[in-house]
Amino acid sequence: MSKNRQGVLICGAYGHGNSGDDAILEAIIREMREIDPDMPIWALSRRPKETRERFGIGAVHHFNFFGFMRIMRKTRMYLSGGGSLIQDATSRRSLWYYLKSIKMAKKRGNLTVMYGCGIGPVGHKGGRKQTARIINRYVDAITLREDSSLEELKQLGVDRPEIVLASDPVLALPSAPEEEVTAALTQYGLNPDGRYLCFALRNWQGFHEKAPIFAAAANRAYEVYGLTPVFVAINHRSDGDAANAVTGLLQTPYHVISEPLTSGLAIGIMSRMTAVVAMRLHGLVFAASRGVPLIGVDYDPKVTAFLQYAGQEMFVPFRSMDENTLNGYIDRAMDAGVSQRFAENARRLAGLERRNVETARKLYAPEEDGQLKRIAVFQIDLDVGGIQRSLINFLSGIDYEQCKVDLYLYEDSKFFQFQEHPHLRVRYLKPYPYLSRVVYFNLLRKLVKPPGGGRVYDTVIDFNSYQNECAVGALGVTAKKRVMWLHNDIEIKRQNEVKYRILWHFFKKKFARFDGFCAVSPGIIEGFRRVSGVRDKPVTAIANFIDTAEIFKKAEEETPFTVDPAHYNLCTMGRICHQKGFDILMDILARVVPHRPDLRFYLIGDGPGKGKLLRQIGKLGLGGVVTLLGNQPNPFPYLRQMDGFALTSRYEGQGMVIWEAKSLGLDLFVSKNLEPYNPGIRGIDDIAGALISAKKREKTTDDLSEYNETVRKALFNVLELKG
Q1: Are 521 and 677 a contacting pair, CB within 8 Å?
Q2: What SS3 string covers 431-452?
Q3: How many Cα atoms occupy the beta-carbon half-sphere of 134 within 13 Å?
Q4: For 596-652, what is each residue's pLDDT tens digit?
Q5: How many CA atoms lie within 13 A of 103 on its CB side?
Q6: 3-state DSSP: the chain helix, strand, coil percent, rounded to 5?
Q7: What gap in Å lies between CA 648 and CA 691, rounded to an integer?
Q8: Contact 77, 110 (CB under 8 A)
Q9: Contacts of 204 (CB under 8 A, 6+ apart)
Q10: What is the pLDDT of residues 193-217, one digit of tens each?
């Protein structure tokens, strides 16, 4: 099989309106994205258009043989995925179809995996023979959802593929957010804090004879335990008849949820139930994934097989079910000890489920690629700014032998350029309207479609911490850990900037949703904790990486700008705004110049405060001393010619420009208030006095090796990289 082939084709009973089958597909898609976020994915479906729109993948009709054979010629893997596909109880034709499709995929060069499967029953003698022959010859690996399927494979004589005992892929799906579940329950007329007994039934042969038993159990549960019956249609196209047959016999209030549900919402609703009675297998799986006490009604061997494997003892055969047995199990489900055991079983099953994706990963991805960490970084743009420069340095400090990075940007503006790498990919998202800044953050999250295309990350980073886009993006993708980078002293920023105080009112709730924070200096941590109220999350101080090799290289580039070496040439760099305090620096220079006629000052940068600063320069008579150089894509040839560097910001997160100037050997004139943000840099109380007495000296560069090694270790620790 060519390594250039990419993607997976998933085969299953999809597009039939069954929430359980759709949940299987959603779970498999998520796990394939975990293997490779960029993996092309197709599925065979009864309703391909609906599948494409719902899951954001390619889809082809499951009887469009020419269509899916074309896909098989370019995919790397074929998954016969989830559910009881290998059985002839439904029909011998379906068994033939699923076996034939496996053979077709293998002959067209695919790795073939039977994924999270239930096996059997296969009763026909010829069918058993055909099943064993095709699986042994054409399947690379099988993962099973329960141990009775393992026994069935042994009985069939299947022994050549790798066989792994796992559990149902649906167990890996997360619930919808709590606020979404609460809103849905309210919409369906349920009190989100109510007590409910859920029924997930199907219209099976003889069901109408059993409907009075379900109704009697529901009436009794309401009278004895105060549990209101709720009927959830796992298959919204066919389960309504079963619910209607029972509700017509009830003497209690009840609720019916017959609309199509997303997997996350179905799981979330099940999680709010006190107990669940289910015929539908994935009604049981949804409940089991959240540790909800459940009673299975065994109309098919797959129900019994799952419950036994899950360690759940409460199930009753459909045909012999009576009131006493069902009521007895409901009584047991109300026991607190039973609830605890169900929760423990849920954790055990979730651990077993991971064997599905790890088996597929070993086949699909080269071993070294399978070990790479997946990292997503959200930032607005790469335009002029300290955060943007910080991001460029961050990207240069990562070890791409250990990770893959997706950089999400909302604007295609690149003042700063980054070094390209095969494991660094830029993905552009649609910018938000400006007025989105004054929309409450939690509401904004509901209004915006999550980014990421189903990709799964180990760590996702909001590198901006200011604009809502980055936080919404970072919280919207699927990730194990979410971290926000803090670049400023938020406490002082709120005190100094009216605009920030207004915006804070709208986005302040976003901080509590992150798992941790990285502050670019220790000096901003306590202020952040005070104003955000975040006390229970880790905040790690990680200074900005300074790429001195790049600085030294760029400093040697040609530039038409030159200074007079007879003067003492002083500079600063940054955005011309209130925070940077260049007005403070101008007042200092006005005191120094009468004592230092040889002083010349250069400001590299631009910003909204430029006009006001120019008026101040004129008023102070500094026109012949101060030169504004504007934004420079490469400021280092300018810095290299200077003798000293000054910074008098009102507040910072970290003065990265200080360290860049230090690396080039410049004298540093940094105000005392910036010391907490730059450990290792000595601040000066009297900058004017220091400038008056400053003398030109021979400069010595500093590669900041100790500084950068400390940063690298802290960064690697947060990203869980080695070394």
Answers
A1: yes
A2: CCCHHHHHCCHHHHHHHCCCCC
A3: 24
A4: 999 999 999 999 999 999 999 999 999 999 999 999 989 999 999 999 999 999 988
A5: 14
A6: 45, 20, 35
A7: 13
A8: yes
A9: 242, 279, 299, 318
A10: 999 999 999 999 999 999 999 999 9
What's the DSSP call for residue 176?
P
Cβ-contact 273, 287 below 8 angstroms = yes
Residue by residue, DSSP assigns 219-246 as HHHHHHH--EEEEE-SBTTTTHHHHHHH
pTM for the structure as a whole: 0.53
Quick check: helix, strand or coil at residue 319?
coil
Mode of pairing for the β-strands spanning 162-165 and 141-144: parallel
Rounded-to-integer distance, Cα 610 and Cα 582, Å: 10
DSSP 565-591: TTSEEEEEES--SGGGTHHHHHHHHHH
Distance CA(374)–CA(458), nearest Å, equals 5
Check if the beta carbon of residue 683 is closer than 8 Å to that of residue 670.
Answer: yes
Whether 411 and 383 have beta carbons less than 8 Å apart is answered as yes
- Provide the 10 A C-beta neighbour count for residue 173: 23
How far apart (Å, rounded) are the C-alpha atoms in residues 143 and 165? 6
| Alpha carbon distance 563, 602 (integer Å) | 10
Q: Are 375 and 459 in contact (CB under 8 A)?
A: yes
Token pair, residue 668, equals 């540093």
Per-residue pLDDT, 453: 62
Q: Residues for the chain: how many in total?
A: 723
Which residues, other chains included, contact 12 with Cβ-Cβ below 8 Å and sequence gap of 6+?
21, 24, 25, 43, 44, 80, 81, 82, 83, 85
* Residue 53 token pair: 């729109």
Please tell me the distance from the alpha carbon of residue 709 to that of residue 723, in angstroms, as a whole number: 10
DSSP one-letter code for 642? -
The CA angle 2-8-10, to the nearest 5 degrees, is 140
C-alpha–C-alpha distance, residues 275 and 295, integer Å: 8
Helix, coil or strand: residue 81:
strand
